[in-house]
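Entry 14: structure prediction run for Exocyst subunit Exo70 family protein. Input pasted below.
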Amino acid sequence: MEDLLAAREILRSSLEKSRDVASAINKVSPTLEEMNRRLTSLEAAIKCMAGKCALYGIREHVARVLGPAAAVLKVFDAVNELEDCLSANDPCSDLPGYLSTVKQLEEALKFLTDNCKLLILWLEDAVGFLEDNNAVSDDWYLMNVKKSLKILEELQAKEERSRLNGGLLHSAFHKLEEEFRRLLKDSTFPVSVDSSLSSLREQDCIVPLPVIQKLQCIMEILSANNMLEKCIYIYVDVRSSNARTVLRALDLDYLETTSLSEFDSVQSVENHIHQWGIDLEFAVKHLLELECTLCNDVFQNVELNVRTDCFAKIAARAGISDFIKFGNAITEGKKDAVKLLKLLDIFSALNNLRLDFNRLFGGKACAEIQSQTRDLVKKVVNGVSEIFWDLSVQVELQRQSSPPNDGSVPRLVNFVTNYCNQLLDDSYKPVLTQVLEIDWNWRREKFEEGLLPNEISNIMKALELNLETWAKTYKDAALSYLFLMNNHWYLCSTLQGTKVGDLMGDSWLRQHEEYTQYYATAYFRESWGKLPALLSDQEDFTATDLVRKRIKTFSEAFEGTYRRQLNWVVFDKELRWKMCQQLVQVLVPIYRNYVNSYYMPSVEEVASPSKSVKYTAERLENMLSSLFEKPKLGKYDNANCTTTHLIGKIKNGVMSHFSSTPATA
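Run finished. Output tokens:
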């Protein structure tokens, strides 16, 4: 019961509280209705304020656009003015002004493009903001903004369109290219075909400094627009054409030769190689040197590899490779002694230009020229070495040939002595030594200075053996002696005071002089020594028939000897004259004395002189004086060895032999 009573009290208390709450709610209900009404009005006000806040949010975008927009308008006006000015002007009449206008137009177009980019970016942001926030109920405003964006995009593309084919900048760049070409051509002085080498060397082929400065200004603008290659192309085209024109004036048709067989003669080869050296020196030291200098001056503001590449193209188009090909043509074919001197001439020309080649063609751009030159030098060095060390063998091989039928000096002897003197001459010896040393170094062998003179000495010794071998082939001993006398005297007289003579030494020269005397005496003894004995002075004065018989025998022996030797030759004019005089002095007096002393012509012979003795003393003298003529090797009158000195020795030997000849029948 107690629990129930307690629960009843609790319920009564709760009901009383509920009545109090309900009474309070009834009192608040009008207030809540008033608040609900006010919230509705507030919602409408807040929505209105939200729209105004959206418009306020793009205020910053609008403020940022106003400045660039005004700048775009001003730049656009400036661009129009510059375009009109550029269209009205020409670089040929006012290059500085034209270049200035081009630069200003480029800058204006770039400024226009940059500002248009900013405007487009900011307007695109504003349009996006308005569209996202529905801040503008009227689409007309958005359409105008979007139309402005399209106009700005077109203005932004104006610079790009100007650079396209047909655009104003593109046309201006093309005019500058043509002006670049015109300046080069007008500043290049053409050379006439009949110009001499000296006039070519004096020709001013360098472009004047003011023109170079103009070229650099043009190139600066074109290079900034990625058109440097076009400048290089124009420059190479104009300057290489000028270089070819200069070289054509030198008459270089001979460079088209592909082998030695195309030359008419050895002399023509020598002339062309000599001219080749002169022309190559001019092409390298003068023409290409000037072109290299000009390349460095014009392209001094660009990278070095651009300059070297430009010069390499000019050198190649000018025809430097044609000179190298000509040298290669000389190295081809048969390797004979004559070619050795020509190869030395080529090496000398190349060696004299070695520093110039290294300086002008040392870059990577000239790798092809370097390779061609190295190959030519290698061929020349190998050819010289091969020919030189084979010379003595070639002389030995000539022993199988026949000596001259007239007992004169063989062409080989003349050639070898002159040839060896040339090799030892100051103009060839240093070059030959250098080439041989290079060849030995390539083979990793040590070259000694004595190798060259030793080989020349071996060649001369081989030539001496040839003479001995040839002399043994003559069936007539007298002709063999005359041949040896001729050749020993030739070696003695022509080599004394020469490089070969100095190399072989005085004892060697004296030995040949002694051989000359010996074989001259042997010749007189073998051919004419028996004739005086046919006219013995121990005759019976009354033995007329015997006298006639001896005169006839003498005449027949003389005639036979004379006819056999009629075509024999003594090469030295003075030596020939002296030998003839010796024969006259020995034979004619004996013959004259014998005839005058013992011969008594008969009545029939007095009446008919034709039946008298066949030869008078005067005729005999004339015949002897006409011997040994027809020299076939040219003049040797300038022999250094004294002919008179030798003749004295020959005379003593001859007279001694004749005086000791027994007077037998």
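Notes: The chain has a mean pLDDT of 81. Will compare against the previous run tomorrow.
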